[in-house]
Write a structure and sequence with these properties.
The complex is a heterodimer of chains A (296) and B (261). With 296 residues, chain A is mainly α. Chain A is 78% helix and 0% strand. Chain B has twelve helices and no strands. In chain B, helix 9 packs antiparallel against helix 12. Classes of the chains: A mainly alpha (296), B mainly alpha (261).
Amino acid sequence: MSLAQSLSTAQRRSSSGALVAWLGVAPFFVFAALFLVFPSALLIVGAFQDGTGAFTLVNFAELFTPSIRAAYLISLEVSAASAVLGAIFGLLVAYAAVGGGLPIWLRSAVATFSGVASNFAGVPLAFAFLATLGRAGLVTALLRNELDVDIYRAGFNLLSFWGLTLTYLYFQIPLMVLIITPAVEGLRREWREAAESLGAGAFDYWRRVAFPVLWPSLVGATLLLFANAFGAVATAYALTGSSLNIVTILLYAQIRGDVLHNENLGYAIALGMIALTALSNIGYIWLRARADRWVK
Amino acid sequence: MNRSTWRAWTVIAFAAVYFILPLIATFEFSLRLLRGQYSFEAYRIVLGDAKFQASFLYSTVLAVLTIVIGAALVVPTAYWLQLRLRKLRPVAEFITLLPLVIPAIVLVFGYLHLYNSSSFLPLTASERGADALLTFGYVTLALPYMYRAVDTGLRAIDVRSLTEAAESLGAGPTTILLRVILPNIRVAVLSGAFLTFAIVIGEFTFASLLDRPAFGPYLQLIGANRAYEPAALAIIAFLVTWACMGLINVVGRRGAARRTT
């Protein structure tokens, strides 16, 4: 085979290779269009239409009716509280596991358990907390019988804002541990030693060195936790039925039975949820890009 | 022990109480079905329940289908994006992030309208169609995890050299993918698979709104009607999740051991 011949075969192979490559990735993009893009686009368009299909912004105005606004508010509050508390406690656990001089087995136990608990959400998690802190739960009963403390009489209720937040923390804290551990590992020992040799105490080190390095990762991770809690349905539904009016449960009821008597209003609620989770994810991605400058 | 170690132990101890107490409480609660004694009666009732067996089997089959379809979509895509269509990689990465941005309940809401009985593809009109729609929905939910796992696996091997070596021996694209690439990223695919299984097995929102007899809606139904059985089910679900994560660790360690020997 002459050089020219073999070159042209190589060329042919490369152009047919490009075709094969395009054919190879086509199913993925078709799938994404059918099951991600079109369904979401349909809702977004529907949110701008009235019952007859004409353009309108009325649906968005109706989002501010008291019951819907209240649902959004409770969702925002639970998601924000569980994200911020999850971030704080998750950071503490990650910092203790990475830099606390703990035995190796305990560090790997923390990592493995975080993987399990961050995925232990939904209906079974609600059952676990009902068995623990429900009216007949073990901890509730122990506190009442042994210490004579009735947490329900003291105002605690698992089927409430704080109850739901406490339950969400069971998957939020481990998720934070998983996300933030690489950033905490990026804090170099030399930085601390350098700060100490210049006379800095623990507080100065955190305020002037560790926190400025960590904050993009911290805020980014908090935003991710927020979106994680905001879209959750199953835990809240199994825990409270429909007694706690959060927006996912309102939307669930709307999908089941058009409780708002306006299909397009349902679309607007969905669009509002996408907008909020999209904002917090964009924030997360932007901050992660900033944080990556320090790691390595 | 110095001060920082002491503080670290304190943090871990508090965390352990918060995370282990609900497990103990749930387990204790699940043993209380018979009055005045501990027994595994709740587990016996649950495991013997025909609806438990049927819904668990249904969700297991769906999880396996989700894994197979998900891997069949993601592996070739990630492979060709790495080998030839690098420009498209950010697009694919963006797409695989979308299921984390769009809440599951919103996605299924869209499905119910796009695939209703009067649409171009009336998947919700038949039982099999709804099963297929639920499976595709699960593939979508698992996409971020499967894609990330496979992409990480592909970055760790030399895709170009492997492909060129196989091509020079006369292998076509299908052979290369199945017999050269796939065995080399087996650990990554398996990690994605077990994570997918853990996500799919107890999923509630999709299954409930598509009205399928899956494990998640069964759990919810038992929770609304029984006292002790839900606790037993929570323990079973926790063990399943634990098993999936444990298997990820096991295959990961095996893979690492093989690479170093």
